[in-house]
């Protein structure tokens, strides 16, 4: 019987990996999605390690239930730790059997995985240029697309009004006119709007035919989100901030949202993601894995995306520099630690013609250069919320 000998958090820049090692010389690699709170998550990993060391790594479901149900508490930090460990255990299982993880999940449900590329711009012209660049690379969809544009979080926002909404609507109309109908637009609203503003916005952009609008309101209240979804003529996506199967069940039982965003590295790892995907499938909702992290997250998301029958599309960030969470949340370029993720991880999952191949290597199919990772300094995420013109906190 193989035995777990070490469970080790590995903190790199703003990324938290977890390595689970066994007495037969193998290791599995996972990543936490609680990206703003990795120091706290690492401590939870150490707590779980006290249980896991000496255990059989093949009992993945049992370990998931043991950690998930051990005490009274839930939360993103706890689930980020559980998720990273779970992904590492699946990686180990695939490596031990010499097969990709998706074969252990029932086999590939498709031959390739459709992905959307991250786009951004501080101006309309920059956003148009980025979208056209994605088209030239063969992508048929783009995402992380903010019609409010990407500006520094230290810049305050005016209170929402007709001009605020109409300018965002015009950004999407301009984009559609520039790129044509061959590019799907996955619109990221980042909780910017109220219920009434969301409904107004969605009706105004219906003729742009967005693939979906994501998180138009804060996802904390399921009733608010489903009220918007049931009141608008465009598909709505949400779920990236949820972290238990029960939350998704309660959300989707209120209204079958078109797209369910699963954070594989936050919502229970591969085990949790498959549970949530089944809940979504039961109400006709398509899965869109949330993936703003490193190539380890991409590798885990690809395994899930390959196996589920109800995949909508998968998020794919640019891995040639720092993670997307750092690019989009650091307050200024000078506070971003530039390093090439491709230097410490290989092979990097990539797309061609708007699709990523179904993984074929054992486990996740990705390896970490531990020595290089150990040399990259840890960066603590600063607490930074955007303020409105009146000084009150607004969502971003």
Automatic annotation (TrEMBL):
Pfam family, one: MR_MLE_C
Species lineage: Bacteria, Bacillati, Actinomycetota, Actinomycetes, Micrococcales
Listed SMART domains: MR_MLE (SM00922)
InterPro entries assigned to the protein according to its UniProt record, in alphabetical order: DgoD-like, Enolase-like_C_sf, Enolase-like_N, Enolase_C-like, Mandel_Rmase/mucon_lact_enz_CS, Mandelate_racemase_C, Mandelate_racemase_N_dom
Keyword annotations: Lyase
GO molecular function annotation: galactonate dehydratase activity
SUPFAM superfamilies assigned: Enolase C-terminal domain-like (SSF51604), Enolase N-terminal domain-like (SSF54826)
Class of the enzyme per the UniProt entry, highest EC level: lyase
Protein's UniProt name: Galactonate dehydratase
GO annotation (BP), single: amino acid catabolic process
EC numbers: 4.2.1.6
